[in-house]
Amino acid sequence: MTQQIDQRTAGSEEWRALAQQLRADSIRSSTGAGSGHPTSSMSAADLMSVLMSKYLRYDFDEPENPGNDHLIFSKGHASPLLYSMYKAAGAITDEELMTFREFGSRLQGHPTPVLPWVDVATGSLGQGLPIGIGVALAGKYLDEEPYRVWVLCGDSEMAEGSMWEAFQHASFYKLDNLVAILDMNRLGQTRETMDGWNGDHYASRARAFGWHAIEVDGHDPEAIDNAYSEALGNDGPTLIVAKTKKGYGVSFLEDVDGMHGKPVTPDREEAALEELGGTNDLRVDVHKPDGTASTGGGSTGEADLPTWELGDEEATRGAYGAALKAVGGARDDVVALDGEVSNSTHSQEFAEEYPERYFEMFIAEQQMVAAAVGMSVRRYVPFASSFAAFFSRAYDFIRMAAISGADLRLSGSHAGVSIGEDGPSQMALEDIAMMRAVHGSTVLQPSDANQTAKLVAQMADTSGISFMRTLRPKTPVIYSAEEDFPIGGSKTIASSDDDEVTIIGSGITVHEAIKAADALAGENISVRIVDCYSIKPIDAAGIQAAVRATGNRVVVAEDHWPEGGVGEAVLSALAEDGGEPVEFRHLAVTKMPGSGKSEELLSSHGIDAEHIARAVRELVG
Fold it and tell me: What's the CA gap between 173 and 164, in Å, rounded?
């Protein structure tokens, strides 16, 4: 028989009964699937029972309600618990619960936003709390709405550095709308965690970071209730350190090492359920948010983009900053984040003009990307900027953002050896390959200022993960401000019926290709120059047409390692049409660079005009 729990009158008896049901359903669903993490779910059942029975404000019938609280399972492997909560809230049926981990089921092994009540994909540990920071930042500083962000954390993931980046930023921004709940069940996947049940270790660290910290017995509903009540009254972020037992409630599972990620076997399921009091069908009347709320900024319009005259010189990173400011002026939903290099990426132009929509993430690239993901949850349009090389530190967050279906705009400056004297630690030479590999991503590398501005404006409306690679040195403006540069396109800079070879460049090598063409013209060698500004999606048809028209001869020059960059993207495009084999010369960075002037490095690594011209001569014989 279905029994209803009213948030307004629920007490310890109801909380304990609901927690037992959540444990039982976690066992049932994972045993039915033959896989999953029931013991990790059982440890946090009391914590979630009290939360959803009294404190959570959420309209499960209207998950897009901007007034809803946000509940993020940073310990995403406890998905059986989350799905059992959805059943208790009446959001899913018991029949759907029992499809856990089946092919085609919405109830995947770790939560994803295929479920409308899940904000972001989790399961890669150390990400839920940093993303929660972004959601909380939006609530406090952008939406200015009273919703709360609740994040269930595992004690194993407290070893991740990204968690402590989150602790720093939550304190710095005084996020009183954020509550992190630490399920301190002591046991990791293979052994005890570093801190075991030493809750004072976590609490003292949190306090040192400027958080309020509360230690509780995670299986005492009254103590949990008091902790949540106290958290609501604090003027900063709160960490609740809850001492729990993995597998709590079943004697042969409770605090037993070696049971992580192992379901109860079918022959022991009945015994486990019996210890939990059998199965029940309790339903929670989760309180809906009060009043109305809004999210996602205000007015949007067409940006008055900056322009440059032909022959002017401007770095594409400078054009990015100017264009970002212009887009921000036209759209109230655009926000900017930076890894404390805004005077290099030029996002400082946005920061100076719209400080209320700029968020400094300091030297914490993981937190920067995570905060951008969190803001996208609230329907903002985030642009996150850093050195392109440093996005590698945040790559798992970018990968997971794609699983979440997040819309992010990333700008990486200081790309390639062309940056000069700073040396290899600052030179992005893997970034194109890295970003091309992200599901559904867009990868752009403009070569001049007007092209950059047009592409920045398009990024604001581009779904998925979009990445712009910008240059440190100034380059000549080669396109008029009236030209268009659709994503997925390319630009043919020079062509004639006499062209013998196609030269494909991107970014800095476009300018080297133009110089090479001028030199070759003096030798009566005519070449076609293609600017591959959209690396993904690539203009396959345009590239195929150019190369086929020049006798299937092509030179690709790029300021990147040869693996996974423009050259391989071009070859893939050429392979698609099933045409004749091509004569291909690939000029890329193949040895470890050092410091030097930009022109010295381009020459040393064989990607300057002289080497491009030499490759053309080899092809024409």
Answer: 14
Backbone φ and ψ of 306, nearest 5°: -70, 155
As annotated, the active-site residues are: 365
Q: 296: which DSSP letter?
A: S
Checking if the pLDDT of 445 tops 60, the result is: yes
Rounded Cα gap, residues 524 and 206, in angstroms? 71
48: CB partners within 8 A, 6+ apart = 19, 22, 81, 85, 152
Cα 30 to Cα 36: distance, rounded to the nearest angstrom? 5
Place of tokens 């660079």: 593
Residue partners of 70: CB distance under 8 A and separation at least 6: 119, 132, 135, 147, 148, 149, 150, 377
Characterize the bridge pairing of strands 149-154 and 178-184. parallel
Write the secondary structure of 450-515 as one string of H (helix), E (strand) and C (coil). HHHHHHHHHHCCCCCEEEEECCCCCEECCCCCCCCCCCCCCEEEECCCCCCEEEEECCHHHHHHHH
How far is it, in rounded angstroms, from Cα 259 to Cα 252?
Answer: 10
Contact 175, 140 (CB under 8 A): yes
- Could you read off the pLDDT of 105-149 as tens digits, one per residue? 999 999 999 999 999 999 999 999 999 999 999 999 999 999 999
Task: Name the residue with tokens 């400094």.
Answer: 360
Query: pLDDT tens digits for 511-541?
Result: 999 999 999 999 999 999 999 999 999 999 9
Residue pair 69/148 in contact by the 8 Å Cβ criterion: yes
C-alpha span between 111 and 365 (Å, rounded) = 24
> Which SS3 state, helix, strand or coil, does residue 351 take?
helix
Residue 181 in 3-state DSSP?
Answer: strand
Amino acid at 543: I
User: pTM, whole model, 2 decimals?
Assistant: 0.97
